[in-house]
């Protein structure tokens, strides 16, 4: 793995699991390090985190038609 976050491959596919704290410790560190150096992935992370927070507000009754 590279020490420069800009050299890491983008982490977009891992962001959902990162927000849900479902990655192993190595992957969590990789994503966190990458987010410090990639504005695009950081913007995507914010969107995923906001969506996750909004989903947490839903109740079962909200999902029924």
Automatic annotation (TrEMBL):
Pfam families reported for this sequence: zf-HC2
Keywords from the named record: Transcription, Transcription regulation
Highest rank taxon of the organism: Bacteria
The keyword Transcription regulation is assigned to this record: yes
InterPro entries, per the entry: Anti_sigma_zinc_sf (IPR041916), Znf_put (IPR027383)
UniProt domain Putative zinc-finger: residue ranges: 11-41
Gene3D superfamilies: Anti-sigma factor, zinc-finger domain
Protein name per UniProt: Putative zinc-finger domain-containing protein
